[in-house]
C-alpha cells in the first residue's frame, strides 16, 4: 500500500515526495518564468493603455470605465470555463497554454485604433487571461505542499511581478525611441508574449493524468462535472472566502483609474505615466515572498484583510495628498503582495484536488465580476460628480466592505 501511494504521488507530482515540502517545486519556478515573460508583454500594454485611450483617443472617464471594466471583467465567466475544462479533461497545461496564446494574439488587434477593434482586442486579451489563470494556479497548488502554499505563490508572484516591472520600462523605452509610436509597443508585446508561450510548452510539466502521461489505473477517465464544481459554493468555508473576495473586488478601484487619478492630482508629466505601475510592482516584488511566508505562519485571512487596508491607505494618500506618489505606490504594492497569491493560498486547501482549478476559478470569477462593476461605477461617478468626490465615495465603500469581509471571513475554514 505504501509503494502504491508513493507511486501515485510521483504520478501526480504531489510535493509530499519532497522531504518536508521545503523546496519550491520546479514546476512553480517554470510557471514563474512563463508569467515573468508574459507579464513583460501584458504590462507593456497595461502601462500605456489608460493614457492611450484617455489622452490619445480622447475617451471620457465613463467610456474608459466601460473599457476598463471590460478589460478587468471579461475574464469573469471564462475563468470558470477554463478552470472546469482543466479539471474535466485533466489538461491543466493545455488549457493554460490556450489562454496564453489568445492573449499574445490579441496584441495585434490593438493596432487598429477603432472602438470596435479595441474592444475586441481587449476582450480577447482578458479572455485569454481568464482561461489560463485558474489552471496555472491549480498547477501551483498541485505541485506544492499545502503548508507552504503561501511561499509557493509568493515565489511565483515575485517572478510574475519582475515581468510587471520590466514591462513599463520596455514600453517607456519604446515610446521614447519611436517618438510616441504606440504601434511599436503593441508589436513588441506580441513577440514577447509568443516567447512566453514557447517557454510554457517546453518547460512546464502538467498536473496529472493525460497532462503527465500517467498510466495509473486508478486515475479517472474524466474529471468532475460542472455541477459538482458549482456545488463548491455550498461548502461553508469556501462560500465565505468567495463572498469576501467578490465583495472586496466590488469596492476596489482598478489600477488604471488609480494611476489616472494620481497623475491628475499630482500633475505628473504624461511622458512618465507608463512608469507609475513600476513603483507598485517594485514593492510587490520585494514583499511577495515574505508576506506569503507570513501568511503560512499566522493564517492567510489576516494578511488578506490588511492588504485591502493598505489599498484604503493609498486612496487616502491620493486624497490628502501626503507623501506624494511614492507613498501611494508603496501602499498599492503592499496591497497586491498581501492579497493576490494569498487569496489563492487561502481558497486552495478548501477545494478537493480533483476540483482545484474549478474552485480557484470560482474565486477569480467572483473577484473579476466585482471589479468589472467597480470600474463602471467609478467611471460613472467620476463623470457625474468629478474625480475627487468619486474617489471619496470609493474609499468609503472600501472601508465598509473591508469591515464586512472581516466578519465574513471570521469563521472561514
Characterize the structure shown.
This protein is mostly helical and 413 residues long. It has one domain (25-215, 225-411): Growth Hormone, Chain: A, CATH 1.20.1250. It has helices at 2-12, 26-56, 61-73, 75-89, 92-109, 115-142, 149-177, 182-203, 226-230, 236-250, 255-265, 276-298, 301-319, 324-347, 356-385, 387-408. Helix 2 (26-56) packs parallel to helix 5 (92-109) and helix 13 runs antiparallel to helix 14. Mean pLDDT is 83; it is low at 1-21 and 212-220. GO terms for molecular function: transmembrane transporter activity. The chain crosses the membrane at residues 161-179, 185-208, 271-291, 303-320, 391-409. It is found in: Cell membrane. It is a multi-pass membrane protein.
Low-confidence runs of at least 5 consecutive residues: 1-21, 212-220
Number of helices: 16
CATH homolog superfamily:
MFS general substrate transporter like domains
How confident overall, as mean pLDDT? 83
Write the H/E string, N to C.
HHHHHHHHHHHHHHHH
**What CATH architecture label applies?**
Up-down Bundle
The description of the largest β-sheet is: none
What is the CATH domain class? Mainly Alpha
Broad structural category:
mainly alpha
Radius of gyration, taken over Cα atoms and rounded to an integer in Å: 21 Å
Pfam families: MFS_1
Keywords: Membrane, Transmembrane, Transmembrane helix
Domain Major facilitator superfamily (MFS) profile: 27-413
Membrane topology: Multi-pass membrane protein
Amino acid at each position: 500500500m505504501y509503494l502504491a501511494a508513493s507511486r501515485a504521488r510521483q504520478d501526480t507530482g504531489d510535493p509530499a515526495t519532497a522531504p518536508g515540502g521545503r523546496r519550491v517545486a520546479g514546476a512553480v519556478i517554470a510557471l514563474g518564468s512563463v508569467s515573468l515573460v508574459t507579464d513583460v508583454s501584458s504590462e507593456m500594454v497595461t502601462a500605456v493603455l489608460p493614457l492611450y485611450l484617455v489622452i490619445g483617443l480622447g475617451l471620457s472617464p465613463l467610456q474608459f470605465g466601460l473599457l476598463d471594466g471590460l478589460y478587468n471583467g471579461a475574464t469573469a465567466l471564462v475563468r470558470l470555463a477554463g478552470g472546469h475544462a482543466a479539471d474535466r479533461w485533466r489538461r491543466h497545461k493545455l488549457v493554460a497554454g490556450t489562454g496564453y496564446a489568445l492573449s499574445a494574439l490579441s496584441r495585434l488587434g490593438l493596432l487598429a485604433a477603432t472602438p470596435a477593434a479595441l474592444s475586441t482586442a481587449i476582450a480577447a486579451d482578458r479572455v485569454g487571461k481568464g482561461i489560463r489563470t485558474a489552471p496555472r494556479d491549480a498547477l501551483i497548488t498541485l505541485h506544492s505542499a499545502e503548508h507552504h502554499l503561501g511561499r509557493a505563490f509568493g515565489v511565483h508572484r515575485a517572478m510574475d511581478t519582475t515581468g510587471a516591472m520590466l514591462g513599463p520600462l520596455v514600453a517607456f523605452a519604446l515610446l521614447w525611441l519611436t517618438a510616441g509610436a504606440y504601434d511599436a509597443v503593441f508589436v513588441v508585446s506580441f513577440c514577447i508574449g509568443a516567447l512566453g508561450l514557447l517557454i510554457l510548452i517546453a518547460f512546464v510539466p502538467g498536473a496529472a493524468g493525460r497532462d503527465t502521461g500517467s498510466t495509473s489505473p486508478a486515475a479517472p477517465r474524466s474529471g468532475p462535472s460542472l455541477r459538482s464544481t458549482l456545488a463548491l459554493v455550498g461548502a461553508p468555508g469556501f462560500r465565505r472566502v468567495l463572498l469576501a473576495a467578490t465583495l472586496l473586488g466590488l469596492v476596489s478601484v482598478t489600477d488604471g483609474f488609480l494611476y489616472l487619478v494620481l497623475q491628475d492630482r499630482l500633475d505628473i508629466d504624461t511622458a512618465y505615466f507608463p512608469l507609475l505601475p513600476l513603483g507598485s510592482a517594485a514593492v510587490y516584488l520585494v514583499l511577495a515572498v515574505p508576506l506569503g511566508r507570513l501568511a503560512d505562519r499566522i493564517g492567510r485571512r489576516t494578511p488578506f484583510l490588511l492588504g485591502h487596508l493598505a489599498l484604503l491607505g493609498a486612496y487616502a494618500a491620493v486624497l490628502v495628498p501626503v507623501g506624494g506618489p511614492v507613498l501611494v505606490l508603496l501602499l498599492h504594492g503592499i496591497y497586491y503582495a498581501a492579497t493576490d497569491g494569498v487569496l489563492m493560498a487561502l481558497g486552495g486547501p478548501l477545494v478537493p484536488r480533483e476540483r482545484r482549478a474549478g474552485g480557484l476559478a470560482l474565486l477569480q470569477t467572483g473577484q473579476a465580476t466585482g471589479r468589472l462593476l467597480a470600474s463602471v461605477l467609478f467611471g460613472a461617478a467620476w463623470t457625474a460628480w468629478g474625480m475627487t468626490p468619486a474617489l471619496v465615495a470609493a474609499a468609503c465603500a472600501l472601508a465598509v466592505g473591508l469591515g464586512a469581509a472581516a466578519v465574513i471571513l471570521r469563521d472561514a475554514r
